[in-house]
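Progress against Task 2.4 (sequence-to-structure conversion) is shown through the following example record, which the project officer requested during the mid-term review.
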Amino acid sequence: MDLPSEEELAQRLASFQRYGMADVDKFKFNSTVEYWLITDLYCRCRRYTWSVEQLRKEIKQALRNMADRLKMVKCYRANKTITIASNIYASLKNTSSRDYCKH
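Structure tokens generated for the chain above:
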């Protein structure tokens, strides 16, 4: 999953602002990641009345945070796959071939 650039996210957020949270279901998000980025930034921007400069800083930080989260998920999935594969291999190694032929 590729993250949008800072400029792309800023443009998508500006498009979303025409809808707002009341019509969130009418906005076509490109991905689940984009949904979380845009809705979080939108809510916090409204709550704290950010300047354009502050919004740019928050976009940059939000993208960094999301990249870190995605890396953690990728590592978790890779480790889990390796663990599952190792467990399957170990169980197969301890099972004789005639166990598969039982009816």
